[in-house]
Specification:
heterodimer; A: alpha/beta; Rossmann fold; three-stranded antiparallel beta sheet; B: mainly alpha; MetI-like fold; 74% helix; flat
């Protein structure tokens, strides 16, 4: 299936080792006689430890891409290759957009979910869980039930659960979309701190151009259905980044405007009715 | 003219005794049956009710004390309780297992659901002669008929519970690499547990109905037997005593089930106004 390893280096990082190679990836959903093409011949390279944000209109197949990488869907065409470092760590963990933490487990057990599935010994499990509860500011709520938490707190549990599982790749599907602006910025900042400590490869889907620019090394702009890659934009703000200061940067505004125009043209090309 | 209205702690008027009583759910729950009994007693003593069919509550109470004293009543309660308990376990456990398995496996559901749905509408007690042919007149056939009655209630509730699980929880389990068994244990069972409890409550009610009828045959013990014997010998007071015990058993088992549910399902938000059985 591969047409030479360097065939499409136009998208991708030269200097970093490849982590994920996606070649002509397609996904078609059929129900009855109706067929919907969610992804059409998508090519993408992601380097080890890169933070990638994907923006695009609704229905552009971003979520489908993430679900394929998470092992929740199988592609109907093309392939994904992922370089795996070791068998002792899980490959990917997903942080979902909705409420995905289990209401029947206390916060502590939610965070430990991946570790418990793998049968990690008690001492290491408890150590890891408290570490990530501390890092996400959840230590006081370790024994709370999810229904006692606010939306922002629940999403922190989801983030802590994914990080505690220690996967090589983090897949985030609009994790902060439902949160209020202030909570969102706080969580973005915390995510950046967590990421800089663990250096995981991250694929992060968002509707928000702001969010993409604040977090990403590269922003991928996708067209409307069927999803294709419109642009691959490097975001070179130095790290560590301060979310609130970044937004006052002139370069930030320039990039924001460029992505907006791309999305706008993609909307017309993709045939999605403008809102 | 303007008037100043003060809203502060302690400004509310203390409710009268009557207001407090009518606001108490416990009092209201006891008041209506008590009233009925008093009316019944009066009617029986005044000769408005035929004592051959409706003995006065006081006469029934006297009989209850006699039967309690002789130990006969408790022995019969014990037998009925035992049959319900054994039959309940025999029915509920496979129902939960099968419900969980079918809920997570569409092919298995497609295979088995039509057969189960076809047997379900048969009144369970109509199967009792067949069960007695197969298992004989003894205890086994009573356990089996109770198990059959309980099975359907618990099975359909469990299945509904699993089918109602939000897709996203199963996605998380898959993404985190849960095995099939782990998915049952960590997702399907806890998520379906509230439904399973509803099924168990319905199943217990069903079990009592079925056991009382089944105790008509091949036994000289149990509350059902007491009811049928008192019909044969025209001892209506005994019959009422047995009926009261069946009612108490039903109510008590529902309360026990509710207590167990509260213990096992601690994660559900509880609103204080939740009504009692």
């Amino acid at each position: 299936m591969l047409s030479g390893p360097d065939a499409d280096d136009k998208v991708g990082a030269h200097e970093i080792a490849n982590k994920i190679s996606i070649e002509r990836l397609s996904k078609e959903f059929t129900s009855g006689k109706l067929a919907v093409t969610a992804l059409q011949s998508l090519d993408l390279r992601v380097g080890e430890g890169e933070f990638i944000c994907i923006v695009g209109p609704s229905g552009c197949g971003k979520t489908t891409l993430l679900r394929i990488l998470a092992g929740l869907e199988t592609p109907t065409g093309g392939e994904v290759r992922i370089v795996r470092r070791g068998k002792d760590r899980p490959l990917s963990s997903m942080i979902f957009q909705e409420n995905s933490i289990f209401p029947w487990m206390r916060v502590r057990d939610n965070v430990a979910y991946g570790l418990d599935l793998r049968g990690i010994d008690r001492a290491r499990r408890d150590r890891t869980v408290s570490h990530f509860l501390d890092l996400t500011g959840l230590a006081r709520f370790a024994d709370a039930w999810p229904h006692q938490l606010s939306g922002g707190m629940k999403q922190r549990v989801s983030v802590a659960r994914a990080f505690a599982n220690d996967p090589e790749i983090l897949l985030m599907d609009e994790p902060f979309a439902a949160l209020d602006e202030q909570t969102k910025i706080v969580l973005q900042q915390e995510l950046l701190r967590l990421w800089s400590e663990t250096k995981k490869t991250v694929l992060f889907i968002t509707h928000s151009i702001d969010e993409a620019l604040v977090l990403a090394d590269r922003v991928l702009v996708m067209s409307g259905r069927p999803g294709r890659l419109l642009a691959d934009i490097r975001v070179d703000f130095p790290r560590p980044r301060l979310v609130h200061e970044l937004k006052a940067d002139a370069e930030f505004g320039r990039l924001w405007h460029r992505i907006w125009e791309l999305l706008d043209s993609g909307r017309r090309v993709g045939g999605i009715a403008a809102a | 003219m303007s008037e100043e209205i003060v809203i502060a702690a302690g400004t509310a008027q203390r409710p009268s005794l009557w207001q407090r009583l009518t606001a108490s759910h416990g009092f209201m729950a006891v008041a209506s049956p008590l009233m009925l009994l008093v009316l019944w007693e009066i009617a029986a003593r005044a000769g408005l009710l035929d004592p051959r069919f409706f003995p006065a509550p006081s006469a029934v109470l006297r009989e209850l004390i006699v039967l309690l004293g002789s130990g006969e009543l408790l022995v019969n309660v014990g037998w009925t309780l035992q049959r319900v308990a054994i039959g309940f376990c025999l029915g509920a456990v496979p129902a939960i297992v099968l419900g969980l398995m079918m809920g997570l496996s569409p092919p298995l559901t497609a295979l088995l659901r039509p057969s189960i749905a076809a047997i379900y509408p048969i009144p369970k007690i109509a199967l009792f002669p067949l069960i007695m042919l197969i298992f004989g007149l003894g205890e086994t056939s009573k356990w089996v008929i109770v198990a059959v009655a309980v099975f359907f209630q618990v099975f359909f509730s469990t299945l509904a519970g699993v089918l109602n699980i939000e897709r996203i929880y199963l996605d998380v389990a898959t993404n985190f690499g849960a095995s099939r068994w782990q998915a049952y244990r960590t997702i399907a069972l806890p998520a379906a547990l509230p439904f399973i409890f509803t099924g168990c409550q319905l199943g217990l009610g069903m079990a009592l109905i079925v056991v009382v009828v089944a105790e008509q045959f091949g036994t000289k013990t149990g509350l059902g037997f007491m009811i049928w014997r008192s019909w044969q010998v025209f001892e209506v007071q005994d019959m009422f005593v047995a009926l009261i015990m069946v009612a108490l058993l039903g109510y008590g088992s529902q309360l026990a089930m509710l207590a167990l549910e509260r213990r096992l399902i601690r994660w559900k938000p509880r609103d204080g106004a939740r009504s009692q059985v």
